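FW: tagging you since you asked about this chain on Friday. Here's the raw sequence from the shared folder, copied in full. Didn't touch anything.
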Amino acid sequence: MSCTNTLALLAGIAAVVSVTAAPVTGAMPWSDASALNTNASTDGNVGDYYPHMAHDGQGNWVCVWCAANVSLNPRDFDILVSRSSDDGATWTAPAVLDPLGADPLEVEDDFHPYVYTDGAGHRIAAWYSYETHGGTLGTDIDILVSRSTDNGATWTPSEPLNSDATTDHVDYTYCNDTSPNLAYDGNGHWVAVWYTRRTDTDPDDYDIYITRSSDHGATWSQLELLHSDLATDLGYDSSPCIAADTSGNWVITWKSDSLIGTNGIGDEDIHFSRSTDNGLNWSAPTALNTDASTDGLRDAYSGGIDLLTDGTVWLVVWVRELPPLVDYDLIISRSTDAGLTWSPPEILNPYYDVDGGGKDLYPRLGADGHGGWVVVWEEYEHFIFPWGSDHDLVFMRSDDGTLTWSDPDVLNSHAYVDLVARDEKPMIAATPQGRWMTIWFSTYDIPGSGIGSERDIFYATSCVPTTAGDHECDGDTDLFDFRAFQACFTVTGPVSSDCLAFDFDGDDNVDGDDYVEFEGAFGGPVE
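HL: got it, structure written out here
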């Protein structure tokens, strides 16, 4: 908690209201968690961490993460990759992504990867690394990227993303690069953002840097400061996120303790900057949380911030440290004008004031492009929920473009029985057809699986159709859905969660009236 008087803290609380909680149409059932890394039962003491994924909306998913044998000292972290071509039903065996990553001389080198796609077979993976690339990059931290043109089946050898990687460790005393985020606009333009230091005097003066590509990451522009104001702010700017729509709008958000604009407190706030020319020029950094000049509170605690757009709504979620306890809760703000203006901060969790100082951390956003949104996060020390106080995953759902949200619910079904396992660092995504997937790493030893209690990559799926009668979330209503409709047909409710796609009139039955609607929706292939 920042050193601010009580009146300022209370003023900050008063200025933040809770979101409107309202029932959404139907439930959102999640499958039981499964190990995504297919070697989970045989990999021994290998720990798997920080998964990230991307899909193309056509059933192809790629998941990346970092892994190392936790029993060795020193450890050698590498980036692993696994693919699914059937919407997550099966996954390929984990493989080292970077062709250079099997070098036995690398030690504790590759961390926290991210993967992105253009939806047309091109994939870009990025991570931060201590790898020296044969002594050419020094022992400082640099950003590495690798590309795939076949949906993640093969990858190019890694190359540095920060264009000064061969000299920055010589030119500056403090120069570590970390936390890369990338975005693609659907029109051939990529922008990468990360935070780093380029200074000889102040180890705490981190700034936001960017680079651009128009050839799917084959080449990148010279790194540059996001905006010239950052050259003189002397603040700690970190944890950047970037999003773009297909209309030429780009937004970057990040955490900063800089005194910018009306932000006169000097606590940590959320800042943002916009571009309308594919990242060539960016607006001056501005506080996104409209209470920045008065709140006196820490925002984006421990890097907890995420940004996403579905092309209509732009949503930011972050962690705020709230008094009187050391209570970390989630805050959201939305924009409907491509980031020009933002709504006042709202507390997402309706139980924030009675959760006894529970910790809500690492929020991530997903959207299906049809008004459906989900926020998932890691929580612990919540004593009011029936799933215990260990680390579990909780989610809230909106089906009206983030205007209203469901109550929080547990996502990992084993939360009720695991008691002490740690489910951490989730990431969520959805296809336009309504197939949702959440991935995370966990110490839970799934009964009968033999995977052990070292960290493995878990995943769970949910189907919330965006096409009427599409029980499978594959984008059409066909004979497979008709068979499911027959199994769901009943004139006495309540309708089960597996049959929600067929309750067209919302009367909690799947009956003759729904059959008429289903017949009208039928239009997929007959085999």
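FW: Confidence is low (pLDDT under 50) at residues 1-16, 21-25.
HL: agreed, and The longest helix spans residues 479-488.
FW: great, closing this out.
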